[in-house]
Design a protein that fits this description.
Strand content: 25-35%
Largest sheet: 3 strands, antiparallel
Strand order of the largest sheet: 1-2-3
Shape: globular
Length: 77
Amino acid sequence: MLQWKEFCEEYELLGSGAIGIVFGVENLKEKRKSALKLQLCLNKSETIREIGIMRVCQTPYIVTFYGYKFFADAKGN
C-alpha cells in the first residue's frame, strides 16, 4: 500500500476517521518515526488551506508538518 521511497515498507495503523487514515511509518531519508496521513480530498482549496495552517503552526500539542503530496483518483481528479 505505502510504496513511497522515503518511507519504510513496514507501517502500523494509528487511527482512522471519516475522510482519512493515519499510519506510523519510518522516514528513511530523515531517519525518524513519522505519522503519515492519507486523506480523501473532497475540496482541494480547503485541503490547501488546512496544509497552510499546519505548516505555520508551532505548538507542542500538534505534530510538526513536513510536507504533502496530491494523488489523482481513478477519474484523474
